[in-house]
Sequence to fold (1527 residues):
Amino acid sequence: MTSKPSSPGNRLGDRPIDFSPSLGDKTDYTTCYMCACRCGIKIHLKDGTIRYIEGNRNHPVNKGVLCAKGSAGIMQHNSPARLTKPLRRVGPRGSGEFREIEWGEALDIAIGWLAQVRATDPRRLAFFTGRDQSQALTSWWAQQFGTPNYAAHGGFCSVNMATAGIYTFGSAFWEFSEPDWDHAEYLLMFGVAEDHDSNPIKMGLSKLKERGAKFVSVNPIRTGYSAVADEWLGITPGTDGLFVLSLIHELLRAGRVDAGYLVRYTNAPYLVIDNPGAADDGLFARDENDQPLIWDHNKDAPAAAHQADEAPALRGAYTLADGRRAKPVFQLLAERYLHKDYSPTVVAFQTGIPATTIRRIAAEIAETAFEREVVIDQPWTDWLGRRQEKMVGRPVSMHAMRGISAHSNGFQTCRAIHLLQVLLGSIDAPGGLRYKPPYPKGFDSLPRPSGRPGEVKPNSPLPGPHLGFPQGPEDLLVDEEGAAQRIDKAFSWEAPIASHGMMHMVITNAWKGDPYPIEVLFMYMANMAWNSAMNTSETIRMLTDTDEETGDYKIPRIIYSDAFYSETVPYADLVLPDTTYLERWDCISLLDRPICDADGAADSIRHPVVTPDRDVRPFQDVLIDLGARLGLSGFIKEGGRPRYPGGYADYIANHERQPGVGMLAGWRGENGDKTGKGEPNPAQLDRYVENQCFWREELAPGHRYFRNVNADYLAYAQSKGFVKSTDPVIVQLYSEPLQKFRLAARGHGDIQPPDRDRQRVETYFDPLPFWYEPLDNHATDGATYTLHAVTQRPMAMYHSWGTQNAWLRQIHGSNRLYVPKMAADRLGLVDDDWVWAESRSGRIKVQIRIMEALNSKTVWTWNAIGKRAGAWNLDPAAKDMTQGFLLNHLIDDLLPEQAGGYRYANSDPITGQAAWYDLKLRLEKASPEETAVSSPQFEVLGQPPTTLERPSVLRYGAVKGRR
Amino acid sequence: MTGLPATPPQRKLGLVIDLDTCVGCHACAVNCKEWNAGGYHAPLTDIDPYGVEPDGVWFNRIHSFEVGTGPDTRVVNFPKSCLHCDNAPCVTVCPTGASYKRVEDGIVLVEEDKCIGCKLCSWACPYGAREFDGDAGVMKKCTLCIDRIYNDNLEEVDRVPACVATCPASARHFGDFADPNSNVSKLAAERGGFDLMPEMDCQPVNKYLPPRPKKTGGDTDRVPELQDASPEGGFLGWVDRLLSSTEHV
Amino acid sequence: MHPAYSVIFFTTASGLGYGMLALLGVFVAAGWLPADRWLGFVGLGIAAGLVSAGLLSSTFHLGHPERAWRAVIQWRSSWLSREGVMAILTYIPIAALAWAWIWLEDVSGPWVWAGPVTAVMALVTVYCTGMIYASLKAIPRWSNPWVPVTYIALALATGAVAMDALMRLFGVGSLLGGGTAVVSLVLASICKLAYWRNIDNASPVATAESATGLGSLGTVRPLDPPHTEANYLQKEMGYRVARKHAAKLRQIAILLLFAVPIVLSAIAGVAGDAIGLAAALLGVLSVAAGVLVERWLFFAEAVHVVTLYYGTREA
Ligand SMILES: Nc1nc2c(c(=O)[nH]1)N[C@H]1C(S)=C(S)[C@@H](COP(=O)(O)OP(=O)(O)OC[C@H]3O[C@@H](n4cnc5c(=O)[nH]c(N)nc54)[C@H](O)[C@@H]3O)O[C@H]1N2
Ligand SMILES: Nc1nc2c(c(=O)[nH]1)N[C@H]1C(S)=C(S)[C@@H](COP(=O)(O)OP(=O)(O)OC[C@H]3O[C@@H](n4cnc5c(=O)[nH]c(N)nc54)[C@H](O)[C@@H]3O)O[C@H]1N2
Ligand code: SF4
Ligand code: SF4
Ligand code: SF4
Ligand code: SF4
Ligand code: SF4
Ligand SMILES: [Mo]
Fold:
């Protein structure tokens, strides 16, 4: 579109069209934070206000595109719900009655509370953060503080994906890998509505479709990505494990696996000791050097695994030198999955996917993997020195997210999907799943959790990080009785591999004082009194419940940092108002959840594009300030002076986790000429800003595949500080750590679960993936509660924080419950009816919409649209409040009582992942007299003393002097 | 000076919208809103933005439809903005001439200063592409981003409509339909681009690409069902055959 | 279509006014009415007043009434523009007629043309109004030849009833006045019933399938609208009266607009002065109420094809 049209228009007397208006007087680059995808943005400013935000074409994440939320950033930045000043609660919790205070007073109050806790019992601080991207700071702060009670929100988000991946192949679907969009010929996507990689997935899908590859979406609901899929499998929630293991059944039955890949790069040939009842049963047979053994066909004898010249057996049963019997992992898994329980005919009914379809998908996958190999003309060498002239791949890719994760069988289901990928040989192979640096990292190379008894002491830091990856019972945070040490009970026998903590249990446990009461609950960027709580009404009650004797709140002090007047702010005793994302420094670090892609390592920053017009401070600055004032060793220099007087920017540039390794990997070293590792560079942030706020280092062509075993890559990764050693990351089909927990449950070893937990650990810690009915489904009367209920992420809205956005809330201003046609007909429901939806723990009234492209046993709604009146500076009568609703009211935070009276968290028994999608319910038509208002409704929240003006007509962008 | 250009426009600028890849993310709609809020039709007023019935001016709106019945029902996301019709009734009904179609490139525009806000053009448009700004009292509409596509202050690559530049799924394409070799002409030709409501005889310039046929049944013929591998070799006997056939040792 | 009261008032009031002007013009030119100053003053005053009030009210619904003058520019393509032009031009013969009738009290000689010219131009104006609607393909129930015909017929019928009442008020009532009313009401009712019959039997012009082009994949139903609250299009074009209400309202319209006035006009035509006057005045009230209902329905029954994107199956 180049040639210039004749201006002005084609008629006399027209107002000339300004074909070339200037976009503003200034442009700036930063990183979007309308969600956690972290796209690069270019901002055009005019007279100090934001005229236009567009995608940064040079940015590795979004390459110029921008989603609906990103484009609505202007309205977030100008939201009338922004907090304006620190607040001290004066009325009862939840009343919204606050006094505005100065920052000095706010910090003094916080210090008063925190210093006292730290000096007496640091456990009495629980510090939990939500949707932030500052975990490399917050975790460090909590570690210096010395409380064991720290985590981000991952426990209710996607820890099942993270751990299942890490324990299997040293990475994860989640954010640490991506499909090979350029080579995949077949993509199986499980339970993804949007994901954190919002824009990259959409760009990838369009590439895939452009190339004519087949895209299959497994999802109870056919919207969004499923709508554009070539094939949609409307699975019944919670049954993916069955479906996937049935595909595996088919592949094994037909002998369609990549045996060569399995013997070289996985533990498929490892010998597993078959010694029922003994302490070594189910562990790998090992040699004197603790190397796992395989059976070498060449020598017809056991040999240490992974030697270049051996011929490992995949099948059979063998007797070791000491007389013990052992079988290769592959034999065990074949025995299990070839069982008829996993045949398509058997699983068809439960999954809702016809047997013929399962067989066809298996055949298509096999054909694509083995008859349509992708060959990249690039030699590479594995860690044993075996050179390959080409990179040969299996172009079947898979991706999965919370449709798998948010079930209490999610860890094992996700492992099953990985097993399928591994059998095809499509891990970091062309056309398959691709690692994103700094991954892979071997599960056994990662930190183990800190905070065991004795490690928590007054006025001292914790010896290591809070979160990690237990290798066995010895890494649990439990006392002699096996009791939990953390307030959320993460890393206890209840959730041994709770690698992201269990934020969803904090309020419940703190309220109960189980395992102990706390003094201060400190939260950041998480709407815990609303959409991120299970059983929201009950959570609200716990936050306001008082101790009968003292009259004090059961959770005595709550400090909260939010940028907006969310539903949680009124429950805080002290509110620390944050800036918006365009007003502060932020760091998207390789130490946290970086923005790398499969072909390059990358990280990025945000920098202030506009100055706040309110009395607010970036939370990270405040945290660093608090750290220094509390005298936390990481935050002060000798003499007690603050170590980072320049606040977060100072910390980003100068903090070193290990020598040479800091928050940012780009432009390190005194002259800024080092990447990955290097001394802090005083000019580092300037270089980032000059480079449009990101850094990326493209990987050499030989470093782009098979990275878990690719010698060159491993050396590179070590040199950059991504990994500690050049050890290969062997794919774990059989997970030995799980067996170790199981052996403990059987009574072996010193560290024993309480009897209450034995059977549970025995059942779920199966070293080979298996399927079990989600716990809550199992505990719920299926004849009464016949419908599964799930939520989906709306693409144009981000959790609760999109609602205040004048543009986005027009798209999703209220939500409906979508009911399958068949169920609606059965219940005599028609479109727009109001119904009561009832679960075993609650009841809500909602309006329905009937849908056909939906699993016939499933109802669903958009997540986090319903709002509480009084919050977000919206009209309290707005539909978000009166018609919108949360499914959360129906989701119990606890499972029903066990024998003995204990109630486990409604979570995955392995990882503690919140089981949002295990919900079952029944519907009943509301009577015509009942008002068309959703239920429950709560008391309208009061407003803080200063609220920003809420315009009744928004004329953003209006040209002055013209109407 | 009245009605539609007497001779067909020299160029026919417009969009191709790919219903096969549109995931319904609303990115195009919001970026359009953002761009145009400060552009030719500034502002794109929002009435009651934080209240009970927010109602804003949007030049592009994303519908979603269910199509078919039973287990084969599919969902199609459906963005809709002005189609810059060749035979645009919105232009011919306009009593003031505020609404017009440009001779140079066929873009249909409203000149706000002349618009009396009679709304007749919105009655005449079958597609709902006209947006009345109740606050300003005038009709507004998609400008095909006329202040982007010819904008000298933008880099060449950026001179495409905002909705096209931002679409993460590349479901929107911009170009000249008068040129048979343009990207849009070719896409429309190859993929069976169609008109909405041809019976209205508006001759829309924008074309929609239909969802591609699903690759469900067809593959059964291409890929035979998997056969049992065990018979000769017993349980997992095939493994040895597989291993001996790979030259890994 | 949303029945905007200003537009309903405009079309009905101006219709009645133009109908009355047309008849007054013809009657006085033909000598069926005396060229009495006061009769002319009141008759033309009411008729022209209604026309002017209608035109004025129609500008109220504009976003920019102060720019209303621009509306006459595009007469070559726009029926709205043509209506505006005609409305303005028609004031010329009206003025001439008024001059002759009220000032000169003599409509003979060259003035005799003032009446018929007024009549023709008034009806052309009404035709233009009808054509504004009839030219909109996007509203299939309007895009119908009966629409302009009915507009003219209703203008004449309502005008005739009003003129009859006027004549009786001035004691110049005649069988012709009542007869004209009865005949024009009968004709108008035939047009209106034909219109209803026509739209009720018309096959749909467009469907949700043709609107989306997705018909080859099956039936099309909306899942989610673009925005959760109604937008301008839905408010403006989405209004539709329920079928059973429409049926009832049609009966009311038939009763008030046709049946009752026909009977009353007939009574007025044959009865004595007092009863005749009362019947004629009641007739005006009835016809006015009836035409308002009719016009409201005209909008409320019309389906715009854009609603196919919002849930209407066919239009
Ligand atoms: N039913 C159901 N419930 C769910 C889920 C589900 O799928 N279904 N999903 C779960 C999952 S995976 C997640 S991650 C959670 C998400 O739930 P939350 O983590 O609670 O996410 P948000 O609702 O976005 O709340 C984040 C808070 O951060 C505030 N905030 C926004 N920007 C800033 C800022 O710049 N600074 C500060 N200090 N605060 C800011 C917002 O105002 C808001 O109060 O929800 C969980 N809840
Ligand atoms: N626009 C937008 N983007 C976001 C967010 C947001 O709020 N808005 N939130 C961010 C956050 S915190 C997260 S955790 C990610 C989550 O990203 P996703 O994982 O994409 O999020 P969900 O909406 O939970 O999607 C779950 C999908 O799984 C399906 N599903 C439910 N149960 C099952 C099942 O048993 N089997 C299968 N196969 N499918 C099932 C649901 O229908 C749904 O489509 O998104 C992130 N990105
Ligand atoms: S996906 Fe959208 S909201 Fe998220 S970072 Fe990217 S542009 Fe921003
Ligand atoms: S941005 Fe693209 S994918 Fe998203 S709604 Fe618009 S056309 Fe569809
Ligand atoms: S889509 Fe509507 S507004 Fe656009 S040119 Fe066609 S008729 Fe006019
Ligand atoms: S609203 Fe404006 S642009 Fe539309 S027809 Fe009337 S004057 Fe023309
Ligand atoms: S072309 Fe421009 S104005 Fe039209 S829909 Fe796209 S972004 Fe909006
Ligand atoms: Mo999440």
